[in-house]
């Protein structure tokens, strides 16, 4: 139930990829105290990058004619034992074991995968595939781990010395990798549950103890994993206690800056612009000190700071949830570029350090102080500027770029601009690109408005801290259909872009032997994240040609949100009418868009723009239609009977469309709040199974939410039975119908 074959029985192999922590980030992070994370927060950025790599590689494999199921780098697991799986904190597949299986790593005494290059200072991700690849030779047990016991000695929760229940044995071919069978509840005390490590831990730690201590003491903050921090192979291990409590990795090169070609630093800076960064400033140590900033507090002997920035033009018209999703994606882009910069400088033999802006520790405060001193006035009244800074021991010449605010001459040839935008969107990773006029979108809005205007929605927010029982804050809002001018005055066109869900991810969701819904949940949040990040790049291309635009997660505001392990994301009905208007597919009776290439297996995002672009033709809904013959499987599969018997119908140009009305309150009960098992939450062990009353009220929603498990509620998984039951989810069913 934790194997590649369990998730994808026809799999022939796995592909494992790894990223390493920049040395200074792990050597300095968590050094004053394990819960003063500082630069160790880069691990979250690495997980995000690995998720993107996993998703992109699976797409690459599908385009080559094979199947693949991408696995998340982290954040999806079964906290408790599940059926016959006698394991807690069980991921769909272990990204600790798989690097050993794939010949990248040895197993350390700590239970972490150790590479010869970086020891435990890595993170990994796995892709399952039916493509046959030549296997990498295994690393012999004991090659990278010399049992120095620094991990055991420095574990603040004593997870490697207390409550050890024998030995784990990872048997692969003729090799056996052994390590202590530790109590994972104890191990997760600080690193996962954020409990104060200065509190004396009880002799026995279990789920009940964790819940009790969270309720009694609250959270201190996450832990910089000391087992990872202190683990380096013997030949790489050195010490500088004035710099770090943990071992310092030896470098294999020395570098002479006195004879360095100018192209070296020029390439580093140019690389930032190549990745879409709009503002770059390099500040010398002397200038930092003149501003009252001591870079040694972040990185001793640092000599330069590189600040990078990204401009978001006018997102004020987005609601709070949509604005938050967009801003988070842009921050990830900024952090990701800083992460690459740290690694690029490290390859030259110089340590570099960064944090995520919001970590609030001493290292974060220094970097944040640098950042605010570089562009203190922002860019313009209608723009938001997001920044982060890398501090390094590499000397880099002073550099500053000023934001270009003047309007570029607009390209007058509509055909050229349309082709340019479509080709660019495809090149950066979108699977589908379509264009609608604003007029066509607004025509649909007028026709469906009577069905969606002033519908009441009850919204619940959790005021509780992580891993504590739900503390609902309930509010009500009235739904209203939006038009293009609600996002951008003078809108002329809407660009609709789509990313796929991978075929086998969908087809294998919830099926035995693994019964895994994690891959579905992973693609639900990863497609949302990548849609926003890629759409930003398309928007910048429009701005380059002198046009304005606005990224929109649900154009007509008729959809909702779905629960994922990375928070609420726009559900898969989002931008359905925009996709219809852009000629990307047909409307199904369950209110989703079916496309020729992917059925329902995709997510859409839209850009409203004042550019005049060539409009795509609508898809004839009679070309492929499985809805009239399937027996309404989606309606019957809904665990909360959210579909009404009445259909909403409208005409657009020469085509007619019809779909079932939906009680969004009931749908939210299942997919937004995961209050019923059959939402998909049962596949990770949720025991909450509360069905909605005939009428959902603030009181009965609040009462139900309080019954969700205080730990499990933090990583909800939904799999949307209405989608999984639909014939459009199976590509072979689509291929039997019609022609393009």
Description:
It is a single chain. The chain is of the alpha+beta class and 740 residues long. It folds into 3 domains: 4-238, no CATH class; 261-400, 3-Layer(aba) Sandwich (NADH Oxidase); 428-735, no CATH class. Helix content is 30%, strand content 19%. The protein contains 22 helices and 28 strands. The longest helix is centred in the middle third of the chain and has 27 residues, at 320-346. The two termini are 40 Å apart.
Brief sketch in words of this structure:
The protein is 30% helix and 19% strand. The protein is of the alpha+beta class and 740 residues long. It folds into three domains: 4-238, no CATH class; 261-400, 3-Layer(aba) Sandwich (NADH Oxidase), CATH 3.40.109; 428-735, no CATH class.
Chain oligomer state: single chain
The overall strand count is 28
Low-confidence sequence ranges: 358-362
Arithmetic mean of pLDDT: 92
Please list the strands of the largest sheet in the order they lie side by side.
14-15-13-12-16
* Mass-distribution shape: globular
Q: Termini, distance in Å?
A: 40 Å
Major sheet size, sense and barrel closure: 5 strands, antiparallel
Q: What's the number of domains? A: 3
**Structural class by helix and strand composition:** alpha+beta
């Amino acid at each position: 139930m934790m194997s590649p074959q369990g998730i994808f029985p026809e799999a022939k192999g796995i592909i494992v990829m790894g990223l390493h922590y920049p040395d200074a980030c792990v050597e300095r992070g968590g050094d004053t105290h394990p819960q003063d994370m500082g630069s160790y927060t880069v691990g979250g950025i690495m997980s995000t990058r690995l998720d993107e790599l996993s998703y992109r590689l699976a797409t690459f494999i599908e385009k080559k004619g094979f199947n693949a199921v991408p696995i998340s780098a982290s954040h999806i697991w079964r906290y408790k034992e599940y059926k016959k799986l006698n394991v807690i904190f069980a991921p769909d597949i272990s990204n600790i074991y798989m690097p050993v299986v794939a010949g990248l790593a040895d197993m350390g005494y700590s239970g972490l995968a150790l590479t010869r290059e970086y020891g435990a200072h890595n993170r990994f991700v796995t892709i399952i595939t039916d493509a046959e690849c030549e296997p990498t030779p295994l690393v012999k047990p004991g090659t990278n781990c010399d049992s120095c016991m620094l991990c055991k000695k420095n574990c603040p929760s004593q997870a490697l010395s207390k409550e050890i229940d024998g030995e784990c044995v990872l048997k692969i071919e003729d090799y056996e990798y052994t390590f202590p069978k530790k109590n994972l509840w104890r191990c997760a005390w600080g690193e996962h549950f954020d409990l104060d490590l200065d509190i004396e831990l009880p002799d026995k730690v279990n789920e009940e103890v964790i819940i009790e201590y969270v309720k009694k003491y609250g959270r201190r903050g996450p832990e910089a994993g000391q087992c990872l921090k202190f683990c380096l192979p013997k030949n790489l291990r050195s010490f500088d206690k004035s710099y770090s409590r943990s071992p310092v990795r030896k470098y294999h090169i020395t570098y002479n800056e006195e004879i360095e070609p100018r192209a070296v630093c020029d390439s580093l800076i140019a690389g930032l612009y190549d990745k879409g960064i709009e503002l770059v400033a390099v500040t010398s140590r002397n200038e930092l000190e003149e501003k009252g900033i001591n870079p040694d507090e972040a990185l001793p002997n640092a000599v330069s700071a590189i600040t990078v920035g990204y401009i978001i033009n006018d997102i004020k018209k987005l609601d709070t949830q949509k604005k938050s999703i967009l801003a988070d994606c842009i921050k990830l882009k900024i952090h990701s570029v800083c992460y690459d910069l740290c690694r690029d400088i490290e390859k030259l033999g110089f340590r570099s350090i960064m944090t995520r802006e919001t970590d609030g520790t001493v290292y974060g405060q220094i970097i944040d102080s640098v950042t605010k001193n570089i562009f203190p006035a922002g860019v313009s009244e209608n723009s938001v500027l997001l920044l982060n800074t890398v501090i390094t021991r590499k000397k880099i010449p002073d550099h500053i770029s000023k934001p270009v605010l003047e309007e570029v001459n607009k390209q007058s040839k509509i055909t050229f601009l349309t082709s340019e935008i479509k080709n660019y969107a495809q090149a950066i990773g979108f699977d589908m690109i379509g264009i609608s006029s604003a007029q066509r979108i607004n025509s649909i809005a007028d026709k469906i408005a009577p069905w969606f205007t002033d519908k009441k929605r009850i919204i619940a927010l959790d005021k509780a801290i992580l891993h504590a029982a739900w503390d609902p804050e309930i509010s009500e809002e009235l739904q209203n259909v939006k038009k293009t001018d609600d996002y951008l005055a003078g809108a002329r066109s809407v660009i609709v872009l789509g990313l796929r869900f991978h075929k086998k991810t969908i087809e294998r969701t919830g099926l035995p032997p693994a019964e895994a819904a994690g891959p579905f949940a992973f693609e639900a949040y990863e497609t949302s994240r990548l849609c926003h990040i890629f759409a930003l790049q398309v928007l910048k291309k429009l701005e380059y040609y002198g046009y304005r635009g606005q990224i929109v997660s649900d154009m007509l505001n008729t959809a909702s949100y779905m629960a994922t392990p990375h928070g609420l994301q726009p559900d898969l009905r989002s931008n359905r009418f925009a996709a219809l208007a852009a000629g990307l597919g047909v409307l199904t009776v369950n209110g989703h868009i079916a496309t020729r290439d992917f059925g329902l297996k995709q997510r859409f995002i839209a850009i409203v723009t004042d550019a005049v672009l060539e409009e795509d033709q609508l898809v004839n809904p009679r070309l492929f239609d499985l809805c009239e013959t399937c027996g309404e499987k989606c309606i019957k599969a809904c665990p909360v009977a959210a579909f009404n018997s009445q259909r909403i119908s409208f005409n657009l140009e020469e085509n007619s469309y019809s779909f079932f009305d939906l009680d969004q309150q009931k749908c939210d009960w299942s997919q937004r709040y995961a209050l019923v098992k059959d939402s998909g939450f049962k596949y990770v062990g949720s025991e909450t199974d509360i069905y909605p009353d005939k009428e959902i009220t603030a009181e009965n929603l609040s009462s139900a939410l309080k019954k969700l498990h205080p730990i499990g509620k933090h990583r909800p998984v939904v799999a949307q039975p209405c989608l999984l039951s639909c014939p459009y989810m199976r590509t072979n069913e689509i291929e039997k119908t019609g022609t393009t």
